[in-house]
């Protein structure tokens, strides 16, 4: 693959071994545990995982990088070629399979979302992401970073900020800071949201116009009458804003919305 093509994929190769070692410690892996790595690149994290005694299943999109990794002829390093978002998960082998990975900036959020759809298969994720995305996943209600992504992630996992990673840890250095976070998945959702699709829609609608009050924001997707009744029945002050609601409050709001015929009949809204 050409250098230009690799640049288009947003590849920034980890070169700081201390960062890789810190990420592995954060994962608290069982001795000899098999690990999934997504986007191993030139193998800086792969090397540290193998040195720590962990067999690795590595999913790599770049054919040239996959070739380089396979030339190591390591029987405990299995290379799966392709885009993780399209790879058949069955080829990865049986779980549980903890994840330790430096994720691409462009698809990191989508990769995390897919992993969290299978909590028994991928019970723990220690992943490096762009700092802004990491902060959103780990944000608390009321903070600037708290948003729809935070709530949707919180339904399936507990997110903990690990540590910051400066641009100099990569070659070439990116123009933004990165961070490693840990996500501990839960087999059962962390709140009773009822209809998952409606829950997602309520969350996305509420954050679609986050500067507005909940009543006004929800009105954009459900209509003023349904939004007002939804909030009243859920016993949530309509003057509040989306970033002040906890996961449990959003779950209550979604369960309430499910009881309203108007909400179910209203047109969908775009994702936040």
Name the poorly predicted regions. 1-9, 266-272
Question: What is the quaternary state of this protein?
Answer: single chain
- The appropriate CATH architecture of the largest domain is 3-Layer(aba) Sandwich
Which secondary-structure class do the elements indicate? alpha/beta
Q: Any idea of the CATH class of the largest domain? A: Alpha Beta
CATH superfamily of the largest domain, by name, is: Vaccinia Virus protein VP39
Q: Helical element count? A: 12
Q: Any idea what the shape is?
A: elongated
Tally of structural domains: 2
**N- and C-termini, Cα separation:** 34 Å
Task: Tell me the strand order in the biggest sheet.
Answer: 5-6-9-7
Percent of residues in beta strands:
15-25%
The major sheet is characterized as:
4 strands, mixed
Please tell me the overall pLDDT. Answer: 91
What's the count of strands?
A: 9
| CATH topology group of the largest domain | Rossmann fold
Task: Describe the structure in your own words.
Helices cover 39% and strands 17% of the residues. The chain is an alpha/beta fold. The protein has 2 domains: 3-185, Vaccinia Virus protein VP39 (Rossmann fold); 196-265, Helicase, Ruva Protein, domain 3, CATH 1.10.8.100. It has a 4-stranded mixed β-sheet with strand order 5-6-9-7, sandwiched between helices. Strands 2-3-4 form a 3-stranded parallel β-sheet. The protein is elongated and about 65 Å long. The chain has helices at residues 3-8, 17-27, 44-51, 63-70, 108-116, 131-138, 148-154, 196-208, 214-222, 224-233, 247-258, 261-265; strands at residues 13-14, 35-38, 56-60, 77-81, 99-102, 124-130, 157-165, 170-171, 178-185.
